[in-house]
Amino acid sequence: MSDSLPSPALRRALRRLYVVRAGFTVVWAALLISTGGAVGPLLTVLLVVYPLFDAASVFWQIRAEGGSRRAKASEWANVVVSTVVAIVLGWASTSPAVALTVWGAWAIGAGLPQLITAIRNRRAGGQVPQMLSGGISLFAGAAFLLQGLRGDGTIIGVAGYALLGAVFFLISGIRLSAMLRKRTAV
Question: Which tens digits make up the pLDDT trace of 51-99?
Fold first, then answer.
């Protein structure tokens, strides 16, 4: 990565992405909570849609970065892992403990690339919340994984985890907005 800061266009694109991800996650978590964790078609759809949205968001970020730099392996790994997890969660949704185990493994697998990407993109601004989110994903993922393997816990718990991620995305979007306003004021 060069020493120059990312373009205002990339910052605007990231801000938009972060705000959309926050909004999507709030709606998704509310719907997940409304299922009460009951196995059924709605739970299956929700468990499949979330990682697919994550994969699409990371892919959109790769495209938004365009020629500014080539996509890193961590971002492509996130796209692939999230897509595979969506498929596995579709199958696992009939067993909440198995779904929780898969979600935990995915949180670990997605959190590490998120942390790496945020550290690498720190010059773009608004990345500290993304670093925290990636780090928390590692720890929360381990907790979900262990709960699922023990057969305890509920899939509803991932709604709280997702909402915390939404807060981090919203903070990143607000921070980028402030940086863009400051740049245009100068």
Answer: 999 999 989 988 887 755 555 777 888 889 899 999 999 999 999 999 9
Does residue 118 lie within any of the structural domains? yes
Q: What is the pTM for the complete model shown?
A: 0.84
Tally the domains of the chain: 1
Rounded CA separation 178/2 (Å): 23
Contacts of 110 (CB under 8 A, 6+ apart): 54, 78, 81, 82, 85, 137
Q: Is residue 1 part of a domain?
A: no
Whether residue 51 lies inside any domain: the answer is yes
- Dihedral sign, Cα of residue 25, residue 27, residue 33, residue 35: negative
- The rounded distance, in Å, linking the Cα atoms of 102 and 88 is 8
- The three-state secondary structure class of 72 is coil
Q: How many CA atoms lie within 13 A of 107 on its CB side?
A: 26
- Report yes or no: 114 and 137 within 8 Å, Cβ to Cβ: yes
Q: What is the mean pLDDT of the chain?
A: 87
- Domain of 162 in residue numbering reads as 8-185
The reply to whether 94 falls in a domain is yes
Structure tokens at 78: 């996130």
Task: Check whether 141 has a pLDDT greater than 80.
Answer: yes
